[in-house]
Sequence to fold (67 residues):
Amino acid sequence: MVIVVQNISRHWRVVHPSWERSRNFICGKEAFDAAAALALDHHGRTGTAVTVQVAAFGTVVEALRFE
Fold:
């Protein structure tokens, strides 16, 4: 599973593959912390790999991974 933290016009959002809508944040730290918590929870429940990617300014970086 890949959870993405995106920077869109000075705002941040978390995109989760099972959500119909993304969740918006003003602060990138809050968005990343929320994505990290979701990833840790999912990994803890399922034991499957989860990646958190940060997409900002035309670049995508894998920032966190639970295997």
The mean pLDDT is 95. The first strand starts at residue 2 and ends at 8.
